[in-house]
Amino acid sequence: MAAGCCGTKKQKLNNSSSVPCNGSVLQNGTQIRNSVIVKPEMGFFCFDVLYCQLHQLDPPKPPNFSNEAFPLFVTWTIGKDMRLRGCIGTFNAMQLHAGLREYATTSAFKDSRFNPITRDELPRLHVSVSILRHFEDGVDYLDWEVGVHGIRIEFHNEKGNKRTATYLPDVATEQGWDQIQTIDSLLHKGGYKGLVTPDIRRSVKLTRYQSEKVTYTSDMNNFIAQ
Fold first, then answer.
1. CA separation (Å) from 126 to 62, 223, 224, 225?
2. Hey, what domains does the chain have and what are their CATH numbers?
3. Contact 38, 129 (CB under 8 A)
4. Per-residue pLDDT tens for 75-94?
5. Which residues form the AMMECR1 domain (predicted)?
């Protein structure tokens, strides 16, 4: 199951296999550190996959990095301001070679919020790979830390329908939200249209998780990681 994580646009979520999200990056110059799974080669691989798709070439050869199975997201941004261009991921654990190949193209061409990425945009693109780990059930809607955890919530909307929504770990920090603001935004993003009350917040089932992330910025030939 996948979920969107956009911090700037409201996105209706359901139980489909892949749903858009919003990626983000650290400031230029941050060194890769504390990375167990994510590797710079994953960014290269996503670019190779996209290049081959755009130029109708055979897909790239299998990469050399780990092929373990993890939930993952691929985010495309563009320009110096790294404006979101497409992001889709999955909470299903996928083998990394197949998962990155699939979501590099899905996020580039099938994010319903954006037109498909074109050849002309290639020189200005950046790609972020997020590998999700350490999933834990929260005791309540406040059992997570801003800037450390991504959160995924389950709740029922006004009609009693079960809905889900997620933000990756860096969304709340980027938006300047505290925990309650993040939960309220996530409820609305997931389709809750009414007034968010303390009782509604307490009814949320929360799962927290962490991510390893690397960003390849093609125009700067640089990697930045979280």
1. 21, 10, 11, 13
2. 19-133+212-225 (3.30.700.20), 135-208 (3.30.1490.150)
3. yes
4. 999 998 889 999 899 999 99
5. 31-225
